[in-house]
Design a protein that fits this description.
The structure is a homodimer. Chain A is an alpha/beta fold. Chain A has helices spanning about 5-15, 35-45, 65-75, 90-100, 120-130, 160-175, 195-205, 225-230, 240-245, 255-270; strands at about 20-25, 55, 80-85, 110-115, 135-140, 185-190, 210, 235-240. Helix content of chain A is about 40%, strand content about 15%. In chain A, helix 2 (about 35-45) runs parallel beside helix 3 (about 65-75) and helix 4 runs parallel beside helix 5. The first copy, chain A, is globular.
Chain lengths: ~270, ~270
């Protein structure tokens, strides 16, 4: 159908740097008179040529399809659009999600997926992505404090739980690598994780694109992404939401678009992108 | 606002037995000319006085709100309605989901939640449920083969991962028990799990309602639910989807409502409910 997801993503990050802009329409911060769809689409149109990826968070669209579709359409193919929905379910139900979110008619290029239900719950997403030139990012080591409750528990083999998830991500992704060498199955790895964890995860998943949340509001170290770069010096997306697309307190000021452009320039500086 | 979720659920299971009917509108099996909303609402209306709970699976409603809301409204308060959506996200995003799915205006009485992101990802759901007389069921040990990939891994403490999740479910649920003694925080425990796992999970979560999928199509032992009964001989929902609400091959026959009623009578017999 279309180019391999990993190849498209790699071209974009090579050309523009590794920035992913989170689109989380928090009602109290939107411009007066605008809703999720309006602000989301305007922000997507504003940023789609300057970032590698946009990541609308479905929770902030009340799980409604129309408004989030409007955001994806506003990007108009200029960057990849990752629907952050963290889906995960047993086989036949995962197939239903995969048809909708990663089918040929989906406006999204990729989604985020939860691994708690295991390999048979990932398979329908991998299959749909492979068939339709799309991708997925599996939660491996998230950026929130609760990552320690389950993901960081130590197994009797002395590895943490998240390393086993990483092995699973590598195993299901390896048959689906693009010309760039990277897989359409990526991993969510928090920028807030200790560098040795990030380094280890890169060893275990040498070909997975990393989607790294935790920049800005969550306090992740901007330099931490360098540890995650793969042997070709890429394969990373640093995701910022509030600090990039809603960089103000309270309701949006009149010059909100300039503020967003300013926040992007600042983030590029902090990541050393010049 | 309304009675405690666990009290309502306990009254229903005492009066009617522990059956939860899954509403998964698989297009190829629906009556000719009916869509997800139409069949779902008719099935809900048909069963709401005969079962303790209905469980619409959001994946089969294409994540659209209108049709699944129609199903919940058709139940008209005659039983509890559990939205099977397996949501799980970091704190502020989980709050957005919780407002929508467990807020005072939500048509649902409870939802299913994924624990991979840890305690801070569960808290907003617990808070919203407590405030609005609603409940949640956290995935602990699912019914699918992939449960072994992550949930059944052995920790260095020699307990499996799912036991740590069970301890977390117990901890967050304990402050939220109803007059019946049960909590509004329940657990998803597959009927396909070995009896010793189910027994252990009941020990670790003495006050959690168990939602047990895996009956029928997934091959769970109908007697397995007895092991999960709590010290008052309740606290269990056995969930059946295809075998109960779509008990035919191909498109629905004309007498589909009698078939569903027949499947309910058969399931009651298999569970020894007379």
């Amino acid at each position: 159908v279309s180019a391999h997801f990993a190849d498209r993503l790699s071209e974009l990050t090579s050309a523009r740097g590794p920035i992913c802009a989170g689109i989380d329409p928090r009602q109290a911060q939107l411009p007066v008179g605008q809703g999720a769809a309006g602000w989301g689409a305007e922000t997507a149109a504003l940023l789609a040529s300057g970032v590698a990826a946009l990541k609308p968070q479905l929770a902030f669209f009340d799980d409604e399809w129309g408004p989030v579709e409007a955001v994806a359409r506003a990007a108009d193919g200029r960057c990849v659009v990752i629907a952050d929905c963290k889906r995960g379910d047993i086989g036949s139900t995962a197939e239903a999600y995969a048809r909708r979110l990663l089918g040929p008619d989906s406006p999204f290029d990729a989604i985020t997926v939860n691994p708690y239900l295991g390999r048979d719950a990932l398979a329908p997403f991998v299959d749909a992505a492979a068939e339709n030139g799309k991708g997925l990012f599996v939660l491996v080591r998230t950026s929130n404090p609760g990552a320690s409750d389950l993901q960081e528990l130590t197994l009797e083999s002395q590895e943490p739980v998240f390393e086993r998830v990483a092995r699973l991500v590598h195993a299901v992704g390896e048959p689906h690598r693009g010309r760039c060498g990277r897989s359409l199955v990526g991993a969510v790895v928090g920028l807030t994780a200790p560098p040795d964890q990030i380094r280890r995860l890169r060893e275990l998943m040498p070909h997975a694109p990393f989607l790294m949340p935790g920049y800005g509001a969550q306090g992740g170290d901007p330099d931490a992404y360098r540890v995650a770069l793969d042997s070709d010096g890429g394969g990373v997306l640093v995701s910022a939401s509030r600090s990039l697309t809603l960089p103000w307190k309270g309701q949006a000021p009149d010059d909100w678009k300039q503020r967003v452009q300013g926040a992007l320039a600042e983030m590029r500086g902090q990541l050393g992108l010049g």
